[in-house]
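Researcher: Go.
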Amino acid sequence: MTDSRFPAAPGDKKALEEGDVLSPRFDADGLVTAVVTDIADGAVLMLAHMNSEALALTISTGIAHYYSRSRAALWKKGESSGNVQTVHEIMIDCDQDAVQLKVSVAGHAATCHTGRRSCFYRRVETADGRSALVMTDDQPRFDPEKVY
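Model: Structure:
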């Protein structure tokens, strides 16, 4: 999918992978994957999706915007919680179908809607052939019931 804000991806693989033109390769649903990491320590905070409007707004404002697949709507991260993500750097992967946002988080310094710093707060452990989830962050930074 192409958008007038972003040129079509070059047909030349070398130009796509080594060139200086941002031409995101949006999937059939018009989305690219966004990996969000903390600018200070590199921790993975969340994984989200961006459509062309979210990517363009993020680039132009320096504030992270995403596309919510469940709500089918654009969303400015932190708009209701106060946990706004300021974007310090945007990286794009080799074939331009995923971005990494390096951010700092305002408010409670929490990214997850559960009140935790990161959406990745459980580790998968396997014992006796069974997998289980083990909590790695059981200290929410805010009460989601009061914020959302």
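Model: The chain has three helices and eight strands.
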